[in-house]
Design brief:
The chain is α+β, with helices and mostly antiparallel strands and 299 residues long. It has 2 domains: 217 residues, 4-Layer Sandwich (Glutamine Phosphoribosylpyrophosphate, subunit 1, domain 1), CATH 3.60.20.10; 72 residues, Alpha-Beta Plaits (2-Layer Sandwich). Helices cover 25% and strands 32% of the residues. The strands form 3 sheets. Strands 7-2-8-1-14-13-15 form a 7-stranded antiparallel sheet, with helices on one face. Strands 9-10-11-12-16 form a 5-stranded antiparallel sheet. β11 and β12 form a beta hairpin. The longest helix is centred in the C-terminal third of the chain and has 14 residues.
Length: 299
Amino acid sequence: MCGIVGLFLKNPSLRSKLGAHLETMLIGMTERGPDSAGIAVYHSPVAKNRCKLTLFNADTTYPWRELSGDLGVALNAETDISQKGNHALLVAQAPEDKVLHWLKSEHPDVRIMGYGQLMEVYKDIGLPAEVAARYGLKQMEGSHAIGHTRMATESAVTTEGSHPFTPAADMCLVHNGSLSNHNNLRKWLRKHGQEFETDNDSEVAARYFAYRLSEGASLKEAMEAGLKDLDGFFTFTMGTKDGFAVVRDGIACKPAVMAENDDWVAMASEFRSLAYLPNIEEAKIWEPAPSTVYTWSLQ
């Protein structure tokens, strides 16, 4: 059992409160996921010639400054890095693919939690309130964000196995449920160039959607394809650079509720995580239908 939440702001005037609202939503899912928690926040975009990466190493004394300096020398690039808990946010004036390659080859002990120009990902072991406070969620501004609280059933309780999963730039996925065909699908995706970092079935779903998007599918088309190819019980919430999406499997046994008004769209595993959103009394509230994809875009 896990809890998932997502908030997509249609009214830009609310962006300064994105993190504060998501923190309340995340803590509301504590009973559904006390093992670990994670967030992906879309905010503070970097310039087109830069990329930003959220990095993880369990050692809170890890030499992040040294890593940043070495990267700058190797790629002849301007870099900056800041530490939050056992994570670090790296910004580099260099092509994203070159930064990723250098990190994987020179620092295999560092896990890349998220990357792109807009998204930051923080996930860790502990209660949702502890994780939110550790990474300063309440102070974060932005356009949209998703979160996850985990009660592990299919794999170990680790920071790496926590959600969200990031299979591509500025893309992430959270999942409540389990997939029955993830082993065969993992083999198929590997043949199509996807690389895996965990044994988590949710990572398989994330990389499946990334593969479909890389083929040219729209966000809605990618998730509709997943309804045919992913076997199991699931509620997925996905974020992209400018999009937000929710889908449930055909049986829809994993709980989900959505709400929308003129200012925002929100989803959660249970209504209690929506109850304190601004003007909730004016929102349309509904249970997402089975095998139905819901999408929103900033554009």
